[in-house]
Design goal:
The structure holds 2 protein chains of 2 kinds. Chain A has helices spanning about 5-15, 20-55, 70-75, 90-100, 135-140, 150-155, 165-170, 210-215, 230-235, 255-265, 285-325, 330-335, 340-375, 385-410, 415-420, and strands at about 60-70, 105-120, 120-130, 145, 160-165, 185-190, 190-200, 225-230, 245-250, 275-280. Chain A is an alpha+beta fold. Chain A folds into 2 domains: about 5-55 and about 290-420, no CATH class; about 60-285, no CATH class. In chain A, strands 1, 2, 3, 4, 5, 6, 7, 8, 9 and 10 form a 10-stranded mixed β-sheet that branches. In chain B, helix 3 (about 100-110) runs parallel beside helix 5. Classes of the chains: A alpha+beta, B alpha/beta.
Chain lengths: ~425, ~230
């Protein structure tokens, strides 16, 4: 069609003459397309950060927890805390490590408490965590210098600690990480002051969630201080066992199947326990569960964005109908000058498509900016893919075509005599 | 074909019979005026001459084409190529330059862009608007607008120029200029012009006057009644 370019120019001309109206008309499309693009960015970032932080915990991990039996929960409607006799003991775990195939090691941990390392005016917030030897590998902690807690520390219930490089910089300014090995750190914990000897320093990694959740400033942030779990038990007075254990499996084996085996093995100890049983979930299945959940959320939000696009499209249709009415005389003139119905129809469809296209492009820019900012905040800056941009452009033009057709057709079918007489 | 022949045998069997059978021949190169009071059927006749509407009955042949049998699409082609409209209210396309307005009928006739622009410039020169080609209608006076509209009507070199009260919205001085332009087009280019007006004085300038009353041609001069 030779006049296509003329139609585009004409449409742009019309929009320029009615800037405010054009903008308001586009708003629905801008919001719709912008939110789809923004969600794509943020969704990508959230999926990325969740998968990343979960796999940083090790995809070959299996989490074992003691929980109320499902039937119990149904009946009682209340949650019970497992008592001393219901917990997983070291004996059970050692037996499991020896007998279940594919189990590499197990790592136990318990929260000792939150506290503050103090030395004169220097301080650093810490969360003291009792761990076993395998905790280092199970949680992908990067050791900078020294060693991690070992079997001897655990058996001897020693007061040793592995601290973060952040704590070192706060408590021992000017000293290198190597130099602090062997130094003592005083921690006020549950109204007690406990001394720990530093045996290792790990690299602190801020988790995106901790950053979002805590309002603490960089200076006051809390880092983990790892001590032998046995020492922790002595401090807290809990001796019985563990409610939660992380089991590392051999790399390359099917961790989902191993999780099943672990659960079956450990539940032999719980056959006579009417309230509690052991559940073992592999990180792999948790990651895939999480990912599919996030996908569902994305789809749900996209549906909402789709509705706003629909509303936007109806807005475009409405304004096109107004435009057709306003320009009835012009349409009549064009017809008198010999414009076939087809030419009038194309002119108005092009105009609707241009409105939607411009709205779509603004929406893409806005969505990208917002999405990038939000995803950057989550620690995973991401841009929409070229495919999704192309899709958004195509989709907004399709909206223009769909919602512009009816008004355009109305314009095309106007009776020229009536149209010329229209005041 | 040398003569353009138009015939109307119109009877509208609806409740309102506007045109009660009109027979009219317009010869090529003629400057004809149709006068009549409002409600006389003058506008309906003009719509039929202008191929905006088809007669209910009767035969209308324009430049060898049977307009009364044309389909909608053919009607728009006839309007495009054979008829040049000049309206009382100019009806220039707003926010569109004088040049683009004159180009418009050629755009619908699929004339190539370069040829379109050249012809439009020639036409604007002819109506002495050559120095205002990029002006918007809102920047032109009434007389200037009407001259652009006449240039536009001439774009596809139509068989007839159909002018509906072309001076109705102009003061007498600019109206005179527009009428002079019609006379020039008629004499120098041999353009067939049909002028529709209720101003009898204006009509007397033309070669022939057809008076319409109650949907019939009043027998005075060359108009005839069925």
């Amino acid at each position: 069609m030779s006049g296509m370019w003329e139609n585009v120019l004409l449409a742009l001309n019309g929009l320029r003459a009615n800037k405010m109206r054009a903008l308001l008309t586009m708003l629905g499309i801008i919001i719709g397309i912008g939110s789809v693009i923004g969600i794509m960015c943020v969704g990508g970032a959230v999926t990325g950060s969740v998968t990343d932080s979960m796999s940083s915990l090790g995809v070959n991990n299996v989490t074992v927890v003691v929980q109320q039996r499902m039937s119990e929960i149904d009946n009682m409607m209340t949650m019970e805390v497992p008592g001393e006799g219901d917990l997983i003991t070291t004996e059970m775990l050692d037996a499991m490590r020896a007998e279940v195939e594919g189990v590499d090691n197990y790592s136990v941990s318990e929260t000792t408490g939150s506290g503050k390392a103090k030395d004169g005016r220097k301080y650093a917030n810490v969360s003291v965590t009792g761990t076993s030897e395998a905790y280092l590998d199970a949680n992908n902690i990067e050791l900078l210098t020294g060693r991690y807690l070992n079997e001897k520390d655990l058996q001897g219930r020693k007061y040793v600690a592995v601290v973060s490089d952040f704590l070192v910089s706060k408590m021992f300014p000017g000293m290198s990480e190597k130099e602090v090995l062997g130094e003592e750190v005083k921690v006020s914990l549950n109204d007690d002051i406990v001394n720990f000897t530093i045996v290792g320093v790990y690299k602190n990694v801020d988790s995106p969630y901790a950053m979002m959740m805590s309002s603490a400033s960089e200076n006051d942030k809390r880092t983990a201080l790892y001590i032998p779990v046995t020492t922790s038990q002595r401090i807290t007075g809990s001796e019985g066992g563990y409610q939660s254990v992380t089991v590392t499996t051999d790399i390359g084996k099917d961790s989902v199947a191993i999780a099943d085996d672990i659960q079956k093995f450990l539940n032999r100890y719980y056959e006579n326990n009417t309230h509690f049983q052991v559940y073992a979930v592999s990180m792999e299945s948790m990651v895939s569960q999480m990912t599919s959940m996030l996908d569902t959320v994305s789809i749900a939000i996209s549906v909402i964005a789709g509705i706003s696009l629909l509303v936007g499209g109806i807005g475009v249709m409405n304004i096109m109908l107004v435009s057709v009415t306003e320009r009835t005389r012009e349409i009549g003139t064009r017809k008198a000058l010999g414009a076939p119905n087809r030419a009038i129809r194309v002119q108005f469809v092009v105009e609707a498509m241009i409105i939607c296209l411009i709205g779509g492009v603004i929406g893409i820019i806005l969505g990208t900016v917002l999405g990038y900012t939000a995803s950057n905040f989550l620690g995973f800056p991401s841009f929409p893919s070229v495919g999704s941009i192309a899709l958004a452009v195509g989709f907004s033009m399709a909206i223009g075509l769909f919602f512009g057709y009816y008004p355009a057709n109305k314009a095309a079918n106007l009776d020229p005599i009536e149209a010329l007489r229209y005041e | 074909m040398h003569d353009i022949i138009k015939r109307f045998y119109i009877g509208t069997p609806n409740e309102l019979q506007i045109l009660n059978g009109i027979t009219l021949d317009v010869r090529k190169g003629e400057f004809l005026s149709i006068v009549g009071a409002s409600g006389s059927g003058k506008s309906t006749l003009m719509n039929i001459i202008g191929a905006l509407d088809r007669p209910t009955e009767g035969v209308y042949e324009l430049d060898g084409v049977r307009v009364d049998q044309a389909k909608d699409e053919q009607l728009s082609q006839i309007r495009n190529k054979k008829i040049g409209f000049v309206f009382q209210t100019f009806n220039l396309i707003p926010r569109t330059s004088a040049l683009k307005n004159v180009e418009l009928p050629m755009l619908y006739a699929n004339v190539p862009p370069s040829q379109r622009t050249r012809r439009a410039k020639e036409l604007l020169d002819m109506v002495e608007m050559g120095d205002r080609i990029s002006h918007m209608p809102s920047e032109l006076s009434g007389g200037q607008k009407q001259r652009v509209a006449i240039a536009r009507a001439m774009a596809n070199d139509p068989a007839i120029l159909l002018a509906d009260e072309p001076t109705g919205a102009l003061d007498s001085k600019t109206g005179r200029l527009v009428m002079d332009l019609f006379h020039t087009l008629n004499k120098e280019q041999g353009k067939t012009i049909v002028l529709i007006t209720h101003n009898y004085k204006l009509a007397t300038e033309t070669d022939r006057i057809i008076t319409i009353s109650d949907g019939r041609i009043v027998p005075n001069g060359e108009g005839s009644v069925d």
